[in-house]
Amino acid sequence: MMPSNNAYDGLETRKGRIYGRQTEHSIEYLGIQYATANRWQPPMDLASELFSNRSLEATSFGPCCPQRDTGIYIPKQDEQCLYLNIFTPFKISHESLLPVLVWVHGGGLISGCSTQSIPLLYNGTNIIRHSLQQPVIIVTINYRLGIFAEMYLTELIEENFEWPTAGNYNYLDILSALRWINRNIHDYGGDPNNILLFGESSGGRTVVDMGALKGSSNLYHHIISQSGALATSLFYSNMSFALQKSNEIVEQLNCSSHESASFLTCLRNTDINDLLMVYGNRPLKSVIDGYFFSYYPSLAIQCGTYNQNINMIMGANKYEEPYYPIYPDMNSEFAIFIITEVLGRNRAPTVINYFELNNCSSSVNDTNRCCDITRFIINAFISCGFHRVYNNIYLKYDREDHNLFWYNMDCNSGICPKLSKEEGAGLCLHQSCRPVLVPGRHLAGHQAVHQASLKF
């Protein structure tokens, strides 16, 4: 017998009737647009907008946000990409609302999508299938990436008096999605007062960053941050650095000779592929702008501006450093390059000299292998970033209510893929946490090793 809210009858919501896709374990409401977004402008919320014709056929995913090819399957892409997907159990009740888990995908903030890979990597139905004793609702979201999220220009700041900053559009998108969820999730049986953000890698860093953002209070209540590489100079920039890097991008386009208004028009009319090409694959740096993102999380905690009432689980894997299995024969030059990228040009020389990376070896048989030393340094640096946030929260807010937790994950043979030793067999590397939290099909290759904590 079909439940009363099955996909064929549709579900009546305040926005209109929505028709989802029924599976063996869930009903999936796919491709719901939560906001529109003009290029390099804050998103325009659709949380209160009615569905067109008061109904929505939500049986297929919306497009992914534009990105370069990074070797993973990304379906159709479009700049109007701010969509979310809701996965619910068959039976929902408006009297007994369910916890809401909102997934923020990883990908260095330059790649990824809620609907990436075949089979679907972030499949909320798989969590529901493994959560029969404690039913939950899963929401997966898209947000802007790379050059479409990061561009920080004086002209962008000056064009909008109501929003006197630029960049960080990915964070603005996520806040918009949370506003949509807060307003509408009750209709799907979800509890707007029990929302958990969780993410891995750059998604794990993002869910921690959210607590330092203007306008994030009361939109969510818990986070799980997995392998987020917190508080490293690789991922944050000040305004002058952001302005410099954005201007360097502009110089490679054909818009720099235009006047201010036509300059932005020119940039906004530039072909997507041209923008992606000049941006390259460099990691996105979130802008500490003194307005929307005033302090990175550790400092926001110290200053008392971080969300205080958030329950947190954060942690890392035993071997976070991803280059160990990929470049086991790395030489001194490459090791120095990696450490400089991670630690920054000011701090890197001290570490490079202390560990004598100029003299490290690429040979498998030597005791001073470059890849081993690099792995140790990056593990320590990532772990330090996590512990800094964890300790600052505990000390600042005296978290004796046991709502702050830390984990350190090691693998077992059932989680880590059976690769050769040089490929990281049995090592709990970056992304190895994914299959634990997000149950699903076994992943293969390095991606499975780096992401073994999440199991969708």
From TrEMBL:
Signal peptide (residue range): none
Domain Carboxylesterase type B: from-to ranges: 12-323
SUPFAM superfamilies assigned: alpha/beta-Hydrolases
Pfam families membership: COesterase
InterPro entries according to UniProt: AB_hydrolase_fold (IPR029058), CarbesteraseB (IPR002018), Type-B_Carboxylest/Lipase (IPR050309)
PANTHER family recorded: CARBOXYLESTERASE
Protein name: Carboxylesterase type B domain-containing protein
